[in-house]
Records
---
Amino acid sequence: MTSPCRRPRDRRLVRPLHATAAGAAAVALAVTLSMTSAQAAPDDTVPHGVVQVAGQDVPVLGTFVYHEHQDDARPEVRGVIHGVRRIDGGTVVYYSLGSAGGDSFRGSSAFPDSSSPYRLNRGVAITIVDTTTLHAYVPLHDDATTFASDTGDLNSNPGELRVGWAVFPELPASVTTVQVNMPWGTAAGEIPVQDGALTPVSAEPAPYVGEGWPQVPQGTALANADQKVATFPLTRRSSDLQKTAQVDETPEQTSVTLDANVLFAKNSAELSSKASATLAKVAADIAARGTGTVVVTGHTDSDGSDASNQKLSEQRAASVVAALEPQAGSAVTFKAVGKGESEPVATNSTPEGQQQNRRVTVVYSVKGDAQ
Amino acid sequence: MKRPVLIGGIAAVVVVVLAVVVACSLHGSDKGTAQPPTSTTASTAPTDPATTRAMTREELQAAVFGGDVGSTTVLGQVDGAVYDSVDPHPARIEVTEVTAFATSTLVRFTLVNLKDDDPLLSLEAFNRKTPLTHDIRDVAIVDTAGQQRYEPYVGVSTSDKTVSLCTCAASPLGMSEVGQPLSATFPPIDPSATTLSLDVPGFPEIKDLPVTRR
């Protein structure tokens, strides 16, 4: 038997309207209908911006939705991001959340269990992400304190929103926006970074939305928190549409994995005609921001002897170096390495796996902006 | 006398189109749930009501719990199967938000079970190489305008190499007909891009998803 919680959520499919005269007329009319509908049913739109609730400014900067324990048979948790604010010694995220389902909402159901090094029952499964400097941050803690809401304070009746908080490391001065992720990796969108804690401050640890903001620790209260352990360098992952060159970028380093099936003919170390454009892009990036030694490494699948694969991987690495070096400027030096079949990234028992293993990687340190 | 006849004819066509649109709209809202197409579908994204207005606490709460928080309007959907080495699980992906920000791209989608069962989903379903990180890091977007394919950002703790994170949802361990909301944050797409595609392992690529800029 299907439980009430398992009722399919009301999702509306929108279909494309074709650019015909009738379509244009329909679009105009649909817009009119949509506007009328929004006025008639204000609950269908969630405001974005600053809302005045009982005379208090309540920023509504992002929203999120997930199911308790990430189980869609359990009630939905919904909420709002109210701010990402620079404070003395850290960065605080204000959010509110609750559930419209069930008899009552327990804050502990909205978060995974917190565990060491955090205290129990704290809302710490929140991250803020800075894609410009490629860093993510998790809540701060010290030996005695976890700098995040006690999930028990977030208990409420169905349909109510209570405000929680979590304090993160200080953000670089250049950061103007961050992405906020709520429990179970639920994205809440890009949120502006602003200065100062929200006011007025409530005496309640988790006030209802519109009834003030929780007191958050600042300054000396955060002095013993290790900001470094709450900081994660990120990797930005991209590729061209053909996946000829897959690029992994960290704040300090770029790694390009080139598909040897495109760069070379089978069992050959002579670059194909398709290789030049791909390698030109890599060389241009090295010239723009590369520094130190560029390490070019050839890899093969397991077909053939170890010796022949070793030789082929060395020759392919050398061919790539020969193509990159003249275009990459004088700020870097090159090193060619062959690994043969010794470092597979996929199984060699399938054609797809073998294809992934036939590759050349180009790894170099970067200076300046990593984005 | 021909012009009034022509205008009258156009008006009649518009009225008919209006009636069809209204009927379809009402039918859709009465129906409540998405109608499964035979292939990928997409249309315009909802606009964002940028407002500064007064509300009571109850009104704001009603808007959050009853409104569209990026999980209601289906911009495109496709049927496929969640990977399982023995018995793949038929499912549907419904994309409900694609928002391009200056420094990132947000995609929200819902995983819906097409059968009335309660499968245990493999950690490898959306993460073949590192399933023990318990996330869906193999999802990707395809930005044809920028000629790039992007995956969510991933990170590893500097103090504990066994701790990692992804700017993507945790691996769903199960799914039902209700639908499991999932999301991921990707690098920014090309400023000229008006659509993108979502690539979820086990499912056909969901193409021409309209992009909302914010």
Note: Residues 21-40 of chain A form the longest helix (20 residues).
---
Amino acid sequence: MVQRTKQSHHKRSIDEHLLIAYLLSLVFGLVVVYSTSSMIAESRFGSHYYFFFRQLIWAFLSVIAMIFICRLDLKRYAVISAPAYLLTLGLLGMVFIMTPYNGAHRWLQLGSITVQPSEFFKVVMVYYLAFSLSNRNRDIRNTKEIIIRYVPLIGAALALILLEPDLGTTIVVFITACMMFFLAGARIKHLLMAAIPLTATAVFLVFGLGYKKARVIDYLAAIVDPLKGSYQAKQAALTLGAGGIFGIGLGEGRQKLFFLPYPHTDFVFAAAGEELGLVGLLMFLGLMFYMIIRGLKIASRQPDKFGYLLASGMTLSLFINVAINVGVVTSLLPVTGLPLPFMSYGGSSLLISSAAVAVLLNLSRRMES
Amino acid sequence: MKRTRSERIRLGLLYLAVCLFFAVAVARLIHLQVFKSSQYSEIVKHQSSGKVGIPAGRGIIYDRNGRIVADNISRSSLYVYALSHKELKQVSRYLEKLFNLKPGTAESRYGLKVRKFRWIKRHISDELADRLDNDTTVPKGLHLRQETKRMYPWGTIGKQILGFTDIDNNGQAGIELTCNKILAGKKGWADIRRDGLRNLYRIKETALVKPVPGQSVILTIDWRFQEVLEEELRRGVDTFNAKAGMGVFVDCNTGEVLAMAHYDPSEQHPMKPVKLRPVTDQFEPGSIFKAITVAGMLDAGIIDFSDSTYCEKGKWKLGKRILHDDKKHEWLSFRQIIELSSNIGVAKHAIEFGGDALYETARRFGFGEKPGIGLGGETRGRVFCPEKWSDYTISALSIGHSIAVSGLQMAMAFAAIANGGELLKPHLVLCNINSEGQVTRRFDREVVRRVMKKSSVDSLQAFLRGVVERGTAEKANSSAVAIAGKTGTAELPRTNGRGYYKNKFVASFAGFFPYDNPSVAGIIVFWEPEPIHYGGHTAAPVFRRIAERYLVLNPDYFAVTHQTLEETESATEKTIETPDLVGRDYHIALAMAKEHDITIRANMDDGIVVWQYPEADRLVFRGEQVLVVLKSPDTSTLSMPNLRGLSIRQASAFLAFAGITGRVSGHGRVVKQSIKPGEQLTGKKICRLECRPI
């Protein structure tokens, strides 16, 4: 068995197309981060390059991490995913003893750098679930098994992230987990049992008790006419519209000057859309689409269930991040703060997205024709 | 290991979801970035850009000889625009320290708020501006803005005419108000970019609409003559113990006003522009009006010069009232009636002339209508016209009572007598010139109407000359210039409108000079001089002194040498012609200066004179300092003279000669110069001069 794995491990070289798409995204993201953050960096820190240099360092670290991950035998080390999961859960708890930033406990201060444990949790969870759900001793079609083993484990993490509060990441984690169960062959009944009560509760909270009803109504109106949405949604739509087809030129953006909120992080997609236009955004979306399709292909050609689940899980986590961020920026989804992989400023997000691609690259070597 | 069927289906669904999402995202982006693009671009453009006004430079006001009388200087103004409470606190603390305010009071005192523009102090001193510029601890929200401020280099002289501007350079009175539109120019607009915090972010390189600088205005006033008039009025009011004095002088051939002032020491700032009373206020003229009465009668041809009139020994009963003369005249010829200013004599002729004819004459001479000088608050005066004329009402009008006129009206009436019978429209502005120096509008001589036949003008002028030569205005007789005119000594009407004060008078003299070829007409009035209250003893000699000093100021127009002036006992100043020093050795120049009773200031101790100011053959006062520039034969460069203590005019003349731009701040005399005395001038472009009134 071990012998066979080793053989399959060396079956092919890595997926060069995916690697090139990844490197292009990385460069694209660095350019956009510089362009959208320089004015804010200048006004806050007195240097145009403040954010750019940090992002450059993170990109460098990401590439190193990627090389490292590519060389690992992921299946052999899969057993450590369970303790890693518990460790990350512990880190998620630790953020509450840190001083809050912008009113939220999302970050852990480690010396001079800050990390966001919830970002790490995403990949660790995927790794753990791929390991756990591919175990032949687990019967994931068994209701009791799911309730006893998985609901507490994942529920605890969701609760901690929700309390930070970080609704966006909670949703990403929840959907990723559900989708992995779905792909692993879980019963549709079980998935509906998770989804229906949550949806019902949400609908009841908003329309029954009126919790944030105005924001939800704003959001619904914004789908039709973004100008009727919240300030952030409106500015994001205006920013995109101002870019037009070809954009107004790199660095020329007006909206990033304190009209558009978080122009270098959560709304970077809009800020890039103003400067690079529809053409630029389609290029980026094309890269993302290509990477995701590539990821799914890698998943479908894995020799075993572990590889299948790990590849599809990593692809999913990337996809859901992209989908929610782009949905928010284009007023298709309600506003929630979530970074856009590769384009948003932020080290944890870049490192984790790179790690996800690295895992895919690693698994691409095990592909069967 | 192949995927199971279930796995393949589920993965296929995921594929589908991915494709669906990307399709929706692309469709949405096309919706926003293609179809909504133009609408959204407009909104973004609107919210991120704006326009900001660019002030246009205000035009300069010159006098008729090109002297600058209203100019602009650059001043810094202090304002606050704080972006946060933290910044606001820092600014408040800084201001409290700067202006020694009680801690914590600055915010309420200046009404400071976050992201609100507030002026702290407009036009701060250069000293403070320099200090703030060099102070690195000035907090972020505190800013300086360059503004221009109106500056009047002649101080209070002519200030009543010029008026003033408010702090935003809008004319508020006088010429500044009347010509505001011309002076102000047109504001320009520039595109600016704003950020989401409403900060001005960038001003595009080119202005959207360039400001059109204001046009300059050249006045008809001769500022040195204005200075003379104001000085003489002040002296007259002091000497004759009068309440107030007023004077108007016009060029009788063109209607150009040469000088005009009012002096009332009881006003808080006697020479500051409250009102230009010669234009806005009216008074009962008294006997000077007899000139108008006589003009009408001469024109009507009812006067027989050979007849004599009985003047009733100074008391003539007219119905219930009695008309008085100052002296007990008996038989007087018509000429004597005027020369001696007999009320009874004039009244007897006027009754013959008739009330309607008299009223018509007054109206013809412009009384009762605005002269049209174009200043605010111009009075039309008041001409009394009863339904039925009685002998008394006729005689009152004929001697200048029951009529109210402005100083300007009377000056224009005498100008008509002087120029051969044409009433002219008075004007204060010679022309407007734009920033390129082209004349955009010229104000020419404008005749209102002919008021006298040419034939009768000569006789009237001769009578008026007689008044000065032999009559009541002997004190106006100058040996330097032949003056003609008429005195007036009117009782002041009671403020309640009933009758007249018996001991309060308005003394006046109106006339023109030179008699042979009239050029200037004018009027001088003193209110309530005591104890001597006759116009002939108060206004007349002041008129004469002003006329004589006019000649000194305009030596080119009048072939009057200083010798003739010296002969007249009344020459008020000792004047001298400057010698021509250019081309002479410094030591010879010194000797010449000593001989001419002037002093010399030079830039070096040795060399040849290459330039002097005032130039040669100018009339100057004895003891005047002449600035000369020396050059040594072996060098080609000039060195800077010491300009301290010189007038701005003198210093500026030198800088113009040396080809250096002068930047003058303040007014008065030079106290500081940026190029030190003795420095070589090669390569120097700008010299700053700081001036202070002495």
Note: Chain B is about 30% helix and 25% strand.
